[in-house]
Every structure is written in C-alpha cells, then in structure tokens.
Design a protein that fits this description.
7 strands, alpha/beta, 266 residues, disordered C terminus, Rossmann fold, 14% strand, single chain, 8 helices
C-alpha cells in the first residue's frame, strides 16, 4: 500500500482511529491533513508525524458546520491541489439511556456529528475527486450500523445512516472514478469504549470491559491500528474494485450474535 505523492484528509484525526490512520498514511508516503475540534491534540498529532519526516498539517473544524467543512477542504486543496483519500471519521458516542429517556439535545448532537458531519464531508470533498477523476472515501460506521444495542438509540441510528449515505454516494460517483466505502468497527481500545464502560458502571468500568470482551470470539477489543489498516487498504489501489461496501472489524462479534447486548437494565 504505497501512498507516495497522494494526499489523505482525515476528520477526527487527533486521536484514536483517526490518529492511527494518519500515521499509517504518512508512514506510507502520503501528505496528510488532520481535522478535529480538539486543537491541542490535533497539533500534537501533526507535529509528531512531522518529526518522523512526513508532511502533516492540522485544521481546526467543527464537522457539523458547513463553513468549517468547506474551510478544511479548501485548506487541503490550497496546500496540495488534490485529495486522493478522505477518511470521513469524526464521531461521538453520546449518552446511554433508553429511548423513552433519551434527551433530545443529546440525540441532535450525536446525529449532528455522526450523520450531518459525514454528509457535509461527502458533499464538500466529492466535487474535487470527481474533477480529478479519482479518489477513495472511507466513512466510519460501526457494528452499531448493522444491529441494535439497547440504550444507544442515537448512536445506532446515526451509524445505520452512515451506511446508507455510503451506499447512495458510491452509486452516484462510481462512473467518475471515485470509490466510497465504510468500515464497521466493533469495540476498539480507544477513549470511546472506555467512556461507555464508565457510563455503564462508574464504580467498576474494568468489570464492564471484561464482560464486553468475553462476548467477542477473539477475547479482546480491536486496536485502532487494526481499523486503520482496513481504512488504508480500502483507500489503496489494492481495493480498486471495491465500492459501496461495509467492512466489519469486530473480532467475530456480530458473526456470533454478540453485538446485541443488554446495555442497560430496567
């Protein structure tokens, strides 16, 4: 997977899966542009990548605001003249609550980042890729986009929507030489899963983690690097015949029905 001379744009690039993908692209020759609303972490990640001799820059943006999205796309094109790979990755987990108790403001916040943010990214990046006649986009969905998990109505709805957006966009731009796919991670050893553990049992988050891991055939959470590896593959020429697909990376959890868990008692 050689990305020499290519430009990779990554939202949610400051931490976790986004950071792992940025490091992976940069380590294989790409020029990377990181987007995040966490300016301190974003600058730190870009700086760490530059210290290894790669070309990396950071743009602060709120992916729910169309002006910010247009600005990060413009900054990338102004700097590099093209966008070859777009990892449309920014997302939040929201809170755990049954549907009847879920706060409207929190629902709107999750849908804003996870759905509107992905939509705005697609809408802003696709014209550049269509114009250049090539490009690969990977949207971050989730196994929550394939099954339901009690207590996560907003997150589950948002990730189902990401898969829908992926399918629609892929069909619209395939003849233009642009591919659009999605990754569907299961639990990943990043801040998000540990936040959910703490919400479920603040007194014993480690116990929640052990319970989650026991439901995964592999017996462990995925790593951010493992998700990033799939993203890089889907953006590479090795995946030239793949578009409109969703790749599950969950240690076999959905294959055995383990993704449907009773997250909340009542």
């Amino acid at each position: 997977m050689d990305f020499t001379g290519k430009v990779a744009l990554i939202t949610g690039g400051a931490n976790g899966i986004g950071r792992a993908a940025a490091e992976g692209f940069a380590g294989r020759g790409a020029k990377v542009v990181l987007v995040d609303r966490d300016a301190a972490a974003g600058e730190a990640t870009a700086g760490a990548i530059r210290q290894r001799g790669a070309d990396a820059r950071f743009v602060t943006a709120d992916v729910t605001k169309s002006a910010d999205v247009a600005a990060y796309v413009k900054a990338t094109l102004d700097a590099h003249g093209r966008i070859d790979c777009f990892f449309n990755n920014a997302g939040i987990e929201g809170k755990l609550a049954h549907t009847v108790d879920y706060e409207e403001a929190m629902f709107d916040a999750v849908m804003g980042v996870n759905v509107k943010g992905v939509f705005l990214g697609l809408r802003a990046v696709l014209p550049a890729m269509i114009k250049q006649g090539s490009g690969a986009i990977v949207n971050t969905a989730s196994v929550a986009g394939l099954v339901g998990t009690p207590g996560m109505s907003a997150y589950v709805a948002s990730k189902h929507a990401v898969i829908g957006l992926t399918k629609v966009a892929s069909g619209e731009v395939a003849r233009a030489g642009v591919r659009v796919n999605a990754v569907c991670p299961g639990p990943v050893d990043t801040r998000m899963i540990h936040s959910l553990e703490a919400m479920l049992d603040p007194a014993n988050p480690e116990g929640v983690g052990q319970k989650y891991k026991s439901a995964i055939p592999s017996g462990r959470y995925a790593t951010a690097q493992e998700i990033a590896n799939t993203v890089l593959f889907l953006c590479s020429d090795l995946a030239s015949g793949i578009t409109g697909a969703q790749y599950v990376i969950d240690g076999g959890r959905t294959a055995t029905g383990g993704a449907v868990t009773q997250a909340l008692g009542r």
